[in-house]
Amino acid sequence: MSITDGTAFTPTATATYTVTGTDGNGCIGTDNVDVTVNTLPTVSAGADQAVCDGGAVTLSGSGASTYAWDNSVTDGATFTPTATATYTVTGTDGNGCIGTDQVDVTVNALPTVSAGADQAVCDGGAVTLSGSGATTYAWDNSVTDGTAFTPTTTTTYTVTGTDANGCIALGSVNVTVNSNYYNIINISLCTGDSVLAGGAYQLASGTFYDSLSSMTGCDSVTETVLTVSSQITVNLPLSVCYGDSALINGNYELANGTFYDTATSVLGCDSITITNFIVDSLITNSITASICQGDSMLC
Q: In the prediction, which pLDDT does 289 show?
């Protein structure tokens, strides 16, 4: 290799260089210098990485002694990338030689997971919850995605969806359990009265059922227990002697007759008392008797 004194050149291998110097008298002298060519470090930035949005990564160089990253990254320190980017590391070895390498960090978007629209069900009814927007779904409260189940109380259910990149997101849905109503009504009527029960007007004692829909669309069952009480009629014969009287219906009666008195029983129905009033006639007999003086007779 031809070397020019004072001119930079690039050695390709370690070598000893000899210089020959000539002074003004034409005298010459020589000297040697060793130039060592150090191998550049093989710097590695590590394998490419993928992270879900909001996740953290750690970049660490290897193959050198010290490392300097671009994009304000500190070697071996965790950080949260905001977008997909290529990061470059410069490694310096003990000889001051440097090498570089790059690594790609992909930031995957989180899936948009939906748990579906809120649902309402009647007590005892079944619902099916199905997630969407991801690849696989895991529900809380022991729910299996896409499988019907019977909720017992109003609850908010949460689904965790995982996409093909392993990124996860949550969704929630409210399931409202509406009550079914069962009402028992006890009704007492008097003979001749009626009540609408079981879809018809009822005149006799019995148990009748009506099924309707509540405001929430659930069953509302009414059980009507009907008791029909009979009218009480009492026939009361009453007789007095001629000239006597009896208090009937608030009046003192002296003559034969049939009198009616209507009252209310303890069940609230009519109680009729029929009084057949008889005034016995006065009996008049004329007896002629003769006795001797000094005798007596019982009259």
A: 64
**Domain(s) of CATH 2.60.40: residues in the chain:** 15-108
Q: Find all residues with CB under 8 Å of 161, minimum gap 6, and list them.
A: 111, 113, 131, 132, 133, 134, 135, 136, 137, 168, 169, 170, 171
Between CA 212 and CA 223, with CA 218 as vertex, the angle to 5 degrees is 40
Please state the pTM of the whole predicted model: 0.62
Q: Which residue ranges of the chain lie beneath pLDDT 50?
A: none
Compute the distance between CA of residue 253 and CA of residue 261 in angstroms, rounded to an integer. 14
**pLDDT at position 121, please?**
95
8 Å CB contact between 135 and 112: no
- How crowded is the C-beta side of 161, counted as CA atoms within 13 Å? 20
Position 147: which residue type? T
- Per residue, what are the HEC states of 74-122? CCCCEECCCCCEEEEEEEECCCCCEEEEEEEEEEECCCCCECCCCEEEE
CA distances from 198 to 125, 167, 204, 212, 282 (A): 26, 59, 12, 11, 63
Rounded-to-integer distance, Cα 7 and Cα 13, Å: 18
Task: Write down the residue that tokens 């995982």 correspond to.
Answer: 162
Residue with tokens 């009361």: 236
CATH number of 15-108: 2.60.40
| Confidence at residue 194, expressed as pLDDT on a 0 to 100 scale | 87
Strand 232-240 vs strand 168-178: parallel, antiparallel, or unpaired? unpaired
Provide the edge-to-edge strand list for the sheet that holds 219-229: 181-190, 219-229, 206-213
DSSP letter for each residue of 15-73: EEEEEEEE-TTS-EEEEEEEE--PPPP--B--S-EEEETT--EE---BSSSEEEESTTP
